[in-house]
Amino acid sequence: MSFEYEVLHTCAQSGARLGVLHTPHGDIYTPAFMPVGTQATVKSLSPDELKECGSQIILANTYHLYLRPGHELIRRMGGLHGFMNWDRPILTDSGGFQIFSLTQLRKIREEGVEFQSHLDGSRHFLTPELAMEIEEALGADVMMAFDECVAYPSERSATEYAMERTARWLERCVKARTDTPQALFGIVQGGMYPDLRERSIALTAQYDLPGIAIGGLSVGEPKPVMYEILDFMRDKLPAEKPHYLMGVGSPDCLIEGVLRGVDMFDCVLPTRIARNGTVMTARGKVVVRNADYKEDPGPLDEDCDCYACRNFSRAYIRHLLKTNEILGARLTSLHNVRFLLREMEEIREAIRCDRLLDWRKDFYAKYGYEGI
Question: Which residues are known to be catalytic?
Answer without folding.
Answer: 93, 266
